[in-house]
Design brief:
- The complex is a heterotrimer of chains A (271), B (151) and C (388).
- Chain B is mainly α.
- Helix content of chain B is 44%, strand content 0%.
- The N and C termini of chain B lie far apart (103 Å).
- Chain C has one domain: Up-down Bundle (Formate dehydrogenase/DMSO reductase fold), CATH 1.20.1630.
- In chain C, helix 2 packs across helix 14.
- Chain C is globular and about 70 Å long.
- The chains are: A alpha+beta (271), B mainly alpha (151), C mainly alpha (388).
- The interface between A and C is large, with 44 and 41 residues.
């Protein structure tokens, strides 16, 4: 799975610069010595978010999907914090593009798990002891599943939310009426109304990063690699092999939403 | 069949509706965005809007560009697969030189305990410690170098 | 907002649709029901209810004019609502709102009222001066032909409009039921019965409203109430109510019997957070009691005075019950988590944009409009324009 992005970054100029003088050297000469001029400009564009000057991204060559490995998640909340920072999601009172749930399941009573998500796991989870040693407990990250038969795009009255040609469900902030129908239609609870713009909002798979060859913020910061993103249209993408060799599931498969978030190691008690 | 004169008022109603419909169709050509419907039932410009958002996280590769000493140190450490910004926060502005301020150092305890505090919910193979059994006080970095934490 | 019990997905804790979205189906339901009552006379030739014909149409119009207001107040961007006319998404039931509304308002209601009142409008035109005269000229579209031939044309075309008005009324309110019934994500809403239940409860509420308005307005203007008319209306109200109640019971029995994954959570919700509004207000006080009251004069002989009192009380209880039904569907559908593990509360405030104050104002407004309409277009069958 790719951890290192095939990013739009400059070729490093292989200068041997001594350790001590490095920082001053860099500060004085700036990044222009390390990054070539054009690449530096490109990096500017990447950081500033101007798509017209960033490298070509062919929409038709991508079909994005994610894998969440429940067996790896440690509930640190790094993804929640990163998403909020990257996407300017309101910190108050409780809106989340992604969150982590903790399940405490008695294996003999899987239909009644105890679930919590304190502030979406923004600060991780407080310590919590479990009653008996044979209790099953684990973390499950949740986010928009970018359904290919998305019920939320089906119900939007004006076409303000849609499935992009590369498989990402996005929201047109200029057309959204704030009617909240899409929020009602999502079976996974991943949409909310941003109180600052009175429009719908949700995970965009960091589309602004994907289209520049960067990883979504949550994938970038996950310390254990529990979140992976892949381009299913790329035959060389390791996700194909992963999906073949692991037992994966989507959430609420009976809803037939065509969800593209594949969970590895998903327990039957997960809602 | 009633004579035309007796139906004249209905023709006026029909004319009114016809004018209304015409105005509606004319208004549509003005108010519907030109790029609507190109890829599907949405405004194509919305894709560009989504792409044009500012970036906050630079990505590990960008950090290692300048801080290759730390990068080398971490390559063989147990934190090799942890992105720099997981602990250091979003640093794209710093990487591009836009923000002259020095990034704030993460605190040497909560940054660590968020991941490494022992919890039955965490996978058993993941390195985690119960604080009271380990070292109750002081920052973790007093003994562990964050970039190569294994002692 | 409000206290959460158990686990809810973080974004679910706040209710998305408020009391305003309870009001909207209630109001369009009244419109559809009032129209169905009017069509009883016009299309099904139940002439005994003719005294309420014009009043039913005016009531429908008054409420239809107010219907979009709760929606506009609720939208995050009401100034963008015209987008529904520009780029309606054909897979969204909500997108048809603008067109169905306009169709029903202009082609069905306004046209039918115009055709029925045209003679009175022309007479009013001839009898007035100044600005009122200009007003009536505009209303008649400048045509003063009220010969028997023209009136026969009006009657025939009006009948035709009423005939297409009936399925239009079904569409106007049925699509609202479909808006809820088609959401697979919400098991409280998702049932094919939803549009039908909504429609029948709409008919019930509309008939009750017109009956009450007729009785109230007659009392206010010191006119005698046509007893056979009201007797018949209350009988139709009872029939519609029995059908409506049966449909709701079918849904309930089906849920209890199949007991699917959502059942325990929903059952708990109905017995706790929704108990007063569902069991007490909707079922007992709002359905069983009015049906029993309406059935009594059918089984027991009683003087007209007592029958009228029963109709008045039953009518009021009916409206309460149907409002409670809308509340239980809309609010009830948001009180439980889609994880089936938690519940939240709806904190209804008074003086906010989506609060109780606005709702009360929106419910009183149609009566104010109706008062104006009744003055402009008198619905009384015994009174044609004064100087005719």
């Amino acid at each position: 799975m790719h951890r290192v992005p095939h990013a739009a970054r400059a070729e490093a100029v292989g200068d041997a610069v001594t350790e001590t003088g490095r920082r001053e050297f860099l500060l004085q000469t700036g990044r222009l010595l390390i990054l070539s001029g054009a690449a530096s400009a490109a990096w500017d564009a990447v950081v500033a978010g101007e798509p017209s000057r960033s490298p070509n991204y062919a929409v038709s060559e991508h079909w994005w999907a994610m894998v969440i490995d429940v067996e790896k998640c440690i509930g640190c909340g790094s993804c929640v914090r990163a998403c909020k920072a990257e996407n300017n999601v309101p910190l108050e009172p409780y809106y989340f593009r992604t969150w982590v749930e903790r399940y405490i399941v008695d294996p003999e009573d899987p239909e009644h798990p105890i679930v919590d998500s304190p502030n979406g796991a923004y600060d991780g989870f407080p310590e919590r002891s479990v009653k008996r040693a044979n209790i099953k407990t684990f973390f499950v990250p949740k986010l928009c599943n970018h359904c290919s038969h998305s019920p939320c795009t089906q119900v939007c009255p004006v076409g303000a939310t849609f499935e992009s040609p590369d498989g990402v469900v996005l929201i047109d902030k200029e057309r959204c009426l704030g009617c909240r129908y899409c929020v009602q239609a999502c079976p996974y609870g991943c949409r909310f109304i941003d109180p600052r713009t009175s429009t719908a909002d949700k995970c965009t798979l960091c589309y602004h990063r994907l289209t520049k060859g960067l990883l979504p913020a949550c994938v970038e910061v996950c310390p254990v690699g529990a979140r992976q993103i892949g381009n299913l249209k790329d035959p060389n993408d390791p996700m194909h092999e992963y999906l073949r060799t692991h037992k994966v599931q989507v959430l609420k498969p009976q809803m037939a939403t065509g969800a593209k978030n594949y969970y590895n190691g998903l327990d039957g008690s997960v809602r | 069949m009633s004579d035309r004169h007796d139906r004249a008022h209905l023709y006026r109603v029909a004319a009114l509706f016809a004018v209304g419909l015409l105005l509606f169709f004319v208004a549509r050509t003005f108010f519907i965005p030109k790029d609507f419907g190109v890829y599907g039932h949405y405004r194509a410009g919305a894709l560009d809007d989504a792409r044009a958002r500012p970036i906050a996280y630079a990505g590990q590769a960008a950090c290692v560009e300048c801080h290759s000493d730390v990068g080398d140190l971490r390559k063989t450490s147990s934190h090799a697969h942890v992105s720099c910004e997981t602990c250091h926060g979003p640093l794209a502005k710093h990487a591009s030189g836009d923000d002259p301020a020095k990034p704030v150092r993460p605190d040497g305890r909560t940054t660590c305990t968020r991941c490494h505090l022992k919890s039955p919910s965490k996978p058993a193979a993941f390195p985690q410690i119960a604080l009271h059994e380990h070292a109750d006080e002081g920052p973790c970095i007093a003994c562990h170098t964050p970039h190569a934490p294994k002692l | 907002m409000g206290t959460v019990q158990g686990y809810m997905y973080p974004n679910e804790m706040e209710l998305q649709w408020s009391i305003l979205i309870v009001l909207y189906p209630f109001i369009t339901g009244l419109v559809a029901g009032a129209f169905i009552l009017a069509s009883l006379e016009r299309v099904f030739n139940v002439h005994v209810v003719k005294p309420t014909y014009r009043l039913a149409l005016l009531t429908a119009l008054a409420f239809l004019l107010v219907a979009p207001l709760p929606l506009q107040l609720h939208l995050g961007h009401p100034e963008r609502s015209f987008e529904m006319y520009l780029t309606p998404h054909t897979t969204s039931a909500m997108a048809m709102f603008g067109f169905v509304y306009l169709w029903y308002l202009m082609v069905v209601l306004v046209l039918e009222i115009w055709l029925d009142y045209r003679r009175d409008l022309v007479l009013a035109w001839k009898a007035s001066r100044g600005i009122m005269r200009a007003f009536y000229v505009v209303l008649t579209l400048g045509s003063d032909n009220i010969s028997p031939g023209a009136l026969a044309v009006d009657d025939k075309f009006g009948r035709f409009i009423t005939i297409i008005g009936i399925p239009s009324a079904f569409l106007l309110h049925g699509y609202v039921g479909f808006i809820f019934g088609s959401i697979k994500a919400n098991p409280w809403w998702s049932t094919p019965l939803m549009p039908i239940v909504f429609l029948f409860s709409a008919i019930v509420s509309g008939i009750a409203l017109v009956m009450l308005t007729y009785m109230g307005l007659s009392k206010l203007t010191r006119r005698t109430i046509d007893i056979p008319c009201v007797d018949t209306i209350s009988r139709y109200l009872m029939y519609a109510f029995i059908v409506d109640f049966s449909l709701e019971l079918v849904d309930l029995i089906h849920r209890i019997y199949e007991a699917d994954e959502s059942f325990k959570a929903l059952d708990f919700m109905v017995h706790t957070r929704l108990y007063t509004s569902q069991i007490v207000l909707q079922m007992l006080v709002g359905t069983v009691l009015p049906i029993a009251m309406l059935a009594t004069p059918q089984l027991v002989q009683m003087p007209a005075k007592w029958r009228l009192r029963i109709y008045a009380v039953a009518g009021c209880l009916t409206l309460v019950g149907i409002f409670a039904m809308r509340w239980n569907v809309v609010i009830g559908g948001q009180l439980f988590s889609k994880s089936f593990l938690g519940y939240t509360t709806y904190k209804l405030q008074f003086a906010t944009r989506e609060g109780l104050g606005a709702s009360i104002a929106l419910l009183l407004l149609p009566f104010a409009i109706l008062a104006a309409l009744v003055r402009l277009l008198p619905p009384w069958p015994d009174e044609s324009w004064k100087n005719a």
